[in-house]
Design brief:
homotetramer, globular, alpha/beta
């Protein structure tokens, strides 16, 4: 099913944080599944409802990206196998594809004193060079790097012209995730933000995406506690059970644990977790969310949530859940799903935020729906639609000539 | 909102097990809410989407029923207040309405050697007498009595004529819950089965309901572990996470705990719990469900579920939840919802099983949908529809003249 | 068993925070148990091993104390009954005893500009006046007030003479809990610190206790998560299972929740929680402890702990526990136990910290033993010893003449 | 520390079930630790209090045993590494020692029509041949085979002479675990029963052990839920918190899960679990214990316990714990501990049940103490005692000549 015909157009996947755990697992997994060495468990777009969607095959994806970490992908895969994220049995199969992808990784680091307009042009050139070198139909840019602190508000974020003027001289106006979104759009690429960082969420960048006729999706992949929340919270509202408090503690190690120990970085994450809950139930709910760095837990996360609610005649009841998951293993297949779906949107000429992809995110761009089942219904409807539901076809988009439909 | 106008038609609620915990809580709660002494938390049909449905007001419900227990309703309410099911503060308010309802309770016990046809006629007469005495538009019969063992298969269950012939002489062919359904249909009443007992699920009774033009709904109210299951299980399928095992233990006291200690009675319950899971995910899942009688827990139940699943590249993960609930407090508002909705169906002339009410049940009659959100969507669509979606209007139904639409 | 003979010497209980939840529950409970209206569940000193200890009867306790809260004890008891801390059935029985205790409560608030030496003399006079007015053998002073921030180190805390010199003029050197300890010792009374506040833990106050020949015990009653820790942590060390991390989240409302929301106050509590664990296992353990204020939880607390450990050949395993408790109901009987035991120590003439009472505390004065069973063994040995084990009899202690042994 | 001197006497370890998970892990672990490739985490007798006990070194243990399973030990170790019980990194180190141990495994299967006296002689000959072939000081026989159903009572179990008379002709009087105990004693060997099977618990076998001057210990290794119980239950009694119910569910796969699916085999296990609890708290406690076979869990076990208790003035509270453990990894080091301790007892000439080893067992032979800390104290006292505490030195015991003390 995943074999490429050799004639189907190939799609580039340009990952920001290309040697991180998620990117390594996604790259290794795409190779293992394409080779028939692993099942596609965890890949949403391989489920029956997506059979009729015109999605690129995993075997047609070509991987590259930016990273400043030096450990090459085959070595990172070995580390992940020791941590239980990848099965040791696929390491031989994926060594060559990982080495190939590793050769396409560029150092994306900022340069001392370089204005951000110049930096963006440099990053965009890396991406278009990758596209041209491999004869790709299009490239999807995916942010899977470490969570950044959210930037303070700035008027330049609200208007594209103001922003572009500022970038000509400023060296630090945009956070890295937004600079990459800017570069992706300039290169005519779809952009996916799997992290809670700002990314393409600034209004000025939405303007740019629409002007360039490229789509984007984000933000903050819904892989654990919030995923469960978005399945459970509607139960309380549908049953008229009033939520009194919802408290959560997340224990995690790995890079994410260390990053989120910084309260400024954690804020963007805990805020989007709470927002989705309150938007679902329609009123404020007591309770806090903690993210603890527990280094010994490595790539694994344990979350505990306590929910207190009130039913008939005010009787108080409670429920709790614990979630023991491996974040990289949960995120990696969703990254592949998002690449396939963003490529489809690009082919269709959709521009701007893709609300139908809200299913994947804690803080869905262009949507306030958090009910997982309704998100799933919207996603499958969109993916299998004959014609684009949102946005007009951008006929003069440079990439649209490669659209296969 | 809940005050009756004095001119709106009144609806009878005839409960089988009318002095049980659920019936007592429902009767007391309807009185307390109507009097403005309690909020309608837990009542689904009071949620905004139901505002446009033509449902009877709680204040228009008149309560009665069958029971062989002798403790009168006001005394039962006192017991429930001590157990934390009812707030002590409403006891004064509900004393008179409970006493009134208690006067409408008849001893429904079988008589030695009485053929079931005669018994059904006697029970139906109790119901029609109640209707006539109070000038009710219609009566909804609700089974909230103890769970029975499921009957062994019998050819008479499959055909109405065969059944009626057999009832003329047999004294024990039908289990009590099904005999009540038979009597309700004969009396032209809607029937709701909140228990896992057979009730109206026999094909011969479905024939009778359609012939008489009356609706029914059931079975096995979804109030705890299975409610959570129907919210959570779709998350795994939508995310392509393969369920490996789902194990559950339910600790409960009260009458239910004692009844379900009998493995034959528990079987009907644990089977419907497992069926709904496997119908949702589409394949067999390892794991058992236990129901333990722990008398000291009284009216409260604690459930623990352990779920093991597999994601990308076969990585195994798990989640657990615990649920601490008061079954009577969860069931009582749903009984009121079901009465209002069944009365609406009866007014509309719908006949036979009501699949749109599957939202409330573990083993929904006429439906195999278990996804809670999709059930909720179907329910609200049905309740607010202009015209009946299922069944033809039964123009010559004796109760249809009272329909308010 | 609890009836007083009328001739046995009576013991005063002077509570700092006398109208708080713990004090109210302790006072009401002592009355209810003495009246035969409640069992002595939760009272350690009523267990069989203490039968031979010469402890005062509950019925011989006379209650009073300091508080700045105005709500009288009978009204506070009503609030606690609504919160599920006290059974409604004892309210009639305890109304008169609570009213009597309430008449013995004085406003202990500091006075603008009053040097602490003068304040202490005033507080001590309140206590001795209480003793004389009721002809009490002795008074035990118990701190059950809100947790204070820990004071910054000060040289005066290390030496009694320096301290007394400073108190003559300073208006804020000692935190309130320590000022009360100072006053208690000056009045010749035993002092028990049930809170994590500094209390008698300053070396200068230990000197004073020994000079005056009075005992003290503390600090931070072990009633929930840490109680479980002190039972569980030894299991890991005894089985050579290496603890990797121990993380905890405590959700609580009530006054305690609000107080501990202040990180400075919480620090004294979370620090003593971690210290006891690391002292038990002998090495640093990863993990954090959170105390969340969740007002809707009222007097109830839910704690969740996650423990990760490593066994044979490095295999990693985990356990979790949740604890749903009512802190006041857990603390109140221990306060009565501590009064009885401190009175015994005073009778025996023991002076200074009482390490044998470490069983009750997170941060036991005079001991680093945290294994609950070893603490229990030490306690029962001490309580039933024929002669004092620690400290010399203080023959010239004013209260020792009343000793019954 | 674990290196043998080459001159110290070597000790045989004869395992019944020598190719099972526990035996494989113990044999591999002893080799890995002796080689310095693994730490001794999980080995109780390597803790500081045992430094002065004269215990044999792990490097002085020589492994063999009976099993009817054909998969050789090195292959079994490979399976356990895949299941996460053994680290893959030690497989090379332990291959040769495992192959050597595997050559010492004999088929212990019963022979059609063979009287049990003859079978016992044959099994004993296997053991003595092993001892002689390797010049061992002594052999400790350890039962780590699958759990058997408990036998029905029989008069022959109560008296040694009656038993021996019956064994001369009966082919199935004794369950296998007891037949092995009989054979071990006849061969002058200490016997350890790590399973819940009957083993040496029959009075007639106790007589034989005393007559032969050999010690034994058992039964049912305390490795998971019951281990936690024996640490936690004393907390409730020491704090006068009355246990109302204690319910447990154990989910496990592997061979144990399948064996315990047979209710007759499970009975011996669930009974000993409940007994230890009720012996600890001194009264009956509501609640059931379930053992579910969930094959997909493999070697891992998840247990959930729910505890309901009552405190001051009858307030009801609860706690829960979950335990995620690998039974083989928990049991294997204890097997090594028990071998070392039983060898010490044999050297000292102690005969009959060893109550000081109750620390390791759910149903300790010769003791009713279940408090884990008190058991640990008793164990360390016994292990470091100068002279035997129990039993007289059996001067004429054939093995005592090799005693090193």
């Amino acid at each position: 099913m995943h074999a490429t015909t050799g004639t189907s157009p190939r799609i580039g996947v340009w990952m920001i944080g290309a040697r991180g755990s998620v990117a390594t697992a996604a790259t290794a997994g795409a190779a293992a599944i394409s080779a028939g060495s692993a099942s596609s468990d965890g890949c949403v777009t391989d489920l029956p409802p997506f059979r009729d969607a015109s999605l690129p095959a995993l075997a047609d994806l070509v991987f590259g990206g930016h990273d400043i970490v030096g450990v090459p992908l085959p070595a990172r895969a070995g580390q992940l196998a020791e941590a239980g994220v990848l099965p040791a049995g696929i390491l031989d199969t994926v060594r060559a594809p990982l080495a190939a992808a590793d050769r396409e990784i560029r150092d994306g680091a900022g340069r001392e004193g370089e204005p951000q307009a110049a930096a963006a042009a440099r990053l965009a050139a890396d991406i278009t060079s990758f596209r041209d070198r491999h004869g790709l139909e299009q490239v999807v840019v995916v942010n899977v790097s470490s969570t950044e602190p959210l930037p303070d508000p700035d008027p330049a974020f609200l208007d594209l012209d103001t922003l572009e003027e500022a970038l000509a001289t400023s060296t630090d106006l945009l956070p890295a995730s937004s600079l990459y979104a800017y570069a992706a759009f300039q290169a005519g690429c779809a952009y996916v933000n799997f992290t809670p960082s700002a990314g393409a969420s600034l209004p000025a960048l939405e303007q740019l995406a629409r002007r360039r006729g490229v789509p984007h999706a984000g933000r903050d992949g819904k892989t654990g506690e919030t995923l469960v929340k978005s399945a459970l919270a509607p139960m309380f509202t549908q049953r008229a059970l009033r939520l009194r408090s919802w408290s959560g503690t997340n224990l995690l190690g790995g890079g994410d644990g260390a990053t989120l120990e910084d309260p400024r970085a954690a804020r963007s994450k805990t805020e989007s977790k709470q927002r989705s809950l309150e938007e679902t139930v329609g009123h404020a709910v007591e309770g806090q969310v903690h993210i603890d760095n527990v280094p010994e837990m490595g790539e694994w996360k344990t979350a505990w949530d306590h929910i207190s609610f009130q039913g008939f005649l005010g009787v108080r009841m409670s429920m709790q859940f614990t979630w023991v998951g491996c974040d990289s293993a949960l995120a990696a297949p969703l990254v592949l799903d998002l690449v396939r779906l963003a490529a489809l949107a690009r082919r269709r000429g959709e521009a701007g935020a893709l609300p139908a992809l809200g299913f994947f995110f804690k803080d869905p761009a262009g949507s306030r729906e958090h009910n997982l089942t309704l998100q799933y219904e919207a996603l499958t409807r969109w993916a299998t639609a004959e014609a684009p539901e949102t946005g007009a076809a951008a006929a003069n988009s440079p990439a649209s000539t490669g659209a296969s439909r």
